[in-house]
Amino acid sequence: MTEGFDGRKRETLRRFAAVGAAAPFVGTASADDGSGDANETREAIRGYVPTTPGAHFSKLRDDLRLGTGEAQYHLRKLEEAGEIESVKDADYRRFFPAGRFDETDKRALGYLRRETPRGMILALLRDPSATGADLAEALGVSRPTISAAAADLEGAGLLDRTDGYALTEPERLLTLVVRYADSFDAEAVAFADEAASLVAYDP
């Protein structure tokens, strides 16, 4: 069982390390410690973070099949080297490639990584006239759940509730969904396939 897990972990790390090898910030000497395993893990994180920006610690750790301490150690080294950065988002710490996203992008990606807010954003991008009742039905959740998520999105500056529900940065959100759809879920991928030709915003 252990050998099978180790094999899957190595395969996962190599897959993301291949992406990391092509990343613009690869090869920062201060982030490496000379260990082959450590370098492979760092390269995997270098590949993972730019393709899954805004992922929180637990998701990154689990997706890369790392131990908690192992993930914490390598993330800290990469952050100290200025290759990645993190922001606190409620109970989560989310990771981004350093210098790539502005604060609004980071907030938007944080909410796109939450199931209900992401579903609301996708629904409002499809139909800007959707009501709270429409959103609750589309997502299969209660109206109070929609109201709570809407309040959070409004607080983040991504939603205006003055007259119904209106996204304040639809082009930005559309671009982020399309660009990183594969790192969200199947619904985002389907949406991106339909919407890719509409993207105009380029952060």
From TrEMBL:
It comes from Halorubrum ezzemoulense. PANTHER family: HTH ARSR-TYPE DOMAIN-CONTAINING PROTEIN, TRANSCRIPTIONAL REGULATOR, TRMB. GO terms for molecular function: DNA-binding transcription factor activity. Gene3D superfamilies: Winged helix-like DNA-binding domain superfamily/Winged helix DNA-binding domain (1.10.10.10). Coiled coil: none annotated. Residues 39-109 form the HVO-0163 N-terminal HTH domain. InterPro entries: ArsR-like_HTH, HTH_HVO_0163_N, HTH_MarR-typ, WH-like_DNA-bd_sf, WH_DNA-bd_sf. Pfam families: HTH_HVO_0163_N, MarR_2. This is MarR family transcriptional regulator. Residues 121-163 form the HTH marR-type domain. CDD domains: HTH_ARSR.
